[in-house]
Amino acid sequence: MTEPSSAGPATGTAADSDAARLSDLGYTQELSRSLSVLGNIAVGFAVVSPVVALYAVSMVGTMIAGPAWVWALPIVLLGQCLVVNVYAELASQWPLAGGPYQWGRRLLGPSFGWMSGWVWQFAVMFGNTTVAYLAAPWVFALIGVTPSPGAMVAVAAAILLTCMLVNAYGIKMLSCFVSLGIAAEAVASVFVGCALLLFFRDHGFSLFTETLGAEALSGGSTSMAFLAVLAVAGWGFIGFDACVSTAEETKNAGRQVPRAMWWALLGVGLVVILNAMAVALAHPAPAAVVAGEDLDPVTTAVITAFGSWSDKPFVAVVLVGFLACAMASQGGAARGVYSLARDGVFPFSRHVRKVNRRQAPIGGLIASTAVSCGGLLLGLNATAIGSLIAFGTAATFLPFFLVSLAALIARLRGTWVPSGHIRLGRRGTFLNVLAVLWTAFEVVNVCWPRAVLAPPGAPWYQVWAGLLGTGAVIGVGLVYLLARKPQNKRAAARAGDEQCGEPTAERSGGQTAEESGVLAAEPS
Q1: CA gap 301, 284 in Å, rounded
Q2: 371-380 pLDDT, tens per residue?
Q3: Neighbours of 323 (CB within 10 A)
Q4: Most buried pick, 60, 169, 190, 213, via CB within 10 A?
């Protein structure tokens, strides 16, 4: 398949080619297309974030399954690679912000696409809440203060507002801060992990065959403990889809976004596995982590190895990594809201779709930040934030499942044949089947109510948080879908754009000829 030709005189520039392709997909270039492939990789890397991933799952994983929990990491990484295969074919053909919404409506229709986008959007926004809340303790650790729940919420809100201001200055400013975060990740993850593994091991590799009695929390069942760890480890490998969120700001996006997703996921995956092993082998007392006596095994391992002088510097670089993750994730959320709003299918779309003079989606930034800050109210009850973490993981895997399912159904119907730069043919269909099975398993596994993943004495609704939270978002979305019929508003929005001189889709339902995989496909 050849790239769509420019609508005007050929200039031979990549910018013209990208703008022409976006125009063929029914949209004008409103965001600043200035990211290179390295910049796109950096955004994805920052959102997945080895530091955030490891701190979110290391302690919980060890308490549930002992040092043997690390075997869950390569399994989840392999499962997520199946998802990236599907996403790569879709992003190659339709390199648009708001991937689940844009792809879903093209594959299975506007209603399915809208629901996919709605679920994904709230998963990302509440994921931002979780990252900001988890970053707050590092601020207090840096200044040596023990925070109250109210202070934690206030600092987390300040982090979200700061990230919004950075994002409001445009993609170049975001890219600069993300690059600083990756430098911090390199120190806190790669350097420290390698040093721990090479020079400060207290245990042999046989440690990874031991559970140290952790399965007692799962009724003595090692299998149930490992299933719980697979659910926990899922948090460590989400976020690569942030590369798709910045597709309309990435040069030669059809080629570069799929590459960026692979680099981001595999890069973070290898670093997380390296560090999880290094921390376990360098920790002076893994049994204390299993017993719940050490709630921060990573810092314990680092300070034991490097000495007490390393405490504050390590806290500082970890905090920078958290902030970079929060900024990049918030930027992705804003672009997802923008993608829905410009089609008129998001509440208050006329205001939310606004782009400022720096070509940043300011309306989406304000809307997503408001929702994320609202979620922080759960943090006023110190134990309730666990509900948000469980819901965030479950709601993130649900869009992975919906996108994979939509792609598979469209393949089997023959209504979609991948026609971008990446076309896997029959192998793609096989991998798509595996991606559907993997994501379906993980959605059920994460939503499954487990007392072991909630604080001791937690109320019932926190044990059921994944299922209740996901069900609430889907329920509200269905009510809005039936009452307001947002899927039908896109045609009206595009008609209004046409009157203002903006390009509209050439085919009914808002699809252009290029959007239809069947019309544009070549034999694989």
Answers
A1: 7
A2: 999 988 877 7
A3: 25
A4: 60
Separation CA 241–CA 226 (nearest Å): 26
Coil/strand/helix, residue 250: strand
Q: For 305-343, give the DSSP string.
A: HH-GGGHHHHHHHHHHHHHHHHHHHHHHHHHHHHHHHTT
- Distance between CA atoms of residues 282 and 231, nearest Å: 25
Tokens representing 422 are 């990446």
Amino acid at 415: T
Contact 351, 357 (CB under 8 A): no
DSSP H helical ranges for 414-459: 425-447
Burial class (CB in 10 A: 0-12, 13-18, 19+), 225: buried
The arithmetic mean of pLDDT across residues 402-406, rounded, is 97
Lowest mean pLDDT among 22-36, 77-91, 178-192, 208-222: 178-192
Quote the DSSP letter at residue 510.
Answer: G
Tokens of 479: 């009510």
Q: Where are the beta strands (DSSP E) in 364-446?
A: none
Residue 209, number of CB atoms within 10 A of its CB = 10
457 to 56, 451, 462, 466: CA distances (angstroms): 21, 9, 10, 17
Task: Give residue 521's pLDDT band: very low, low, confident or very high (50, 70, 90).
Answer: very low
| Rg over CA atoms, the chain | 23
Question: Please, what sign has the CA dihedral across residues 81, 85, 86, 90?
Answer: positive
**Residue of higher predicted confidence among 152 and 507:** 152
Burial classification of residue 449, based on how many CB atoms lie within 10 Å of its CB (0-12 exposed, 13-18 middle, 19 or more buried): middle
Please give the Cα distance from 358 to 460 (Å, whole number): 47
Q: What is the predicted pLDDT for the residue at 462? A: 79
User: Each residue of 128-150: b (16+ CB within 10 Å) or e?
Assistant: bbbbbbbbbbbbbbeeeeebeee
Question: Would you give the DSSP letter of residue 211?
Answer: -
Of residues 341 and 522, the one with the higher pLDDT is 341
Query: Please, what sign has the CA dihedral across residues 220, 222, 227, 229?
Result: positive
Determine contact, residues 326/159, Cβ cutoff 8 Å.
yes
Query: Is the CB of residue 462 less than 8 Å from the CB of residue 454?
Result: yes
Main-chain dihedrals φ then ψ at residue 35, nearest 5 degrees = -85, 135
| pLDDT per position as a tens digit, 206-241 | 999 999 999 998 989 999 999 999 998 888 888 899
Distance CA 295, CA 151 (A): 20
DSSP secondary structure letters along 35-46: B-HHHHHHHHHH
In 3D space, the residue among 100, 26, 29 whose CA is nearest the CA of residue 509 turns out to be: 26
Q: Does the pTM of the predicted model rise above 0.85?
A: yes
Q: How far is CA 30 from the centre of its chain?
A: 24
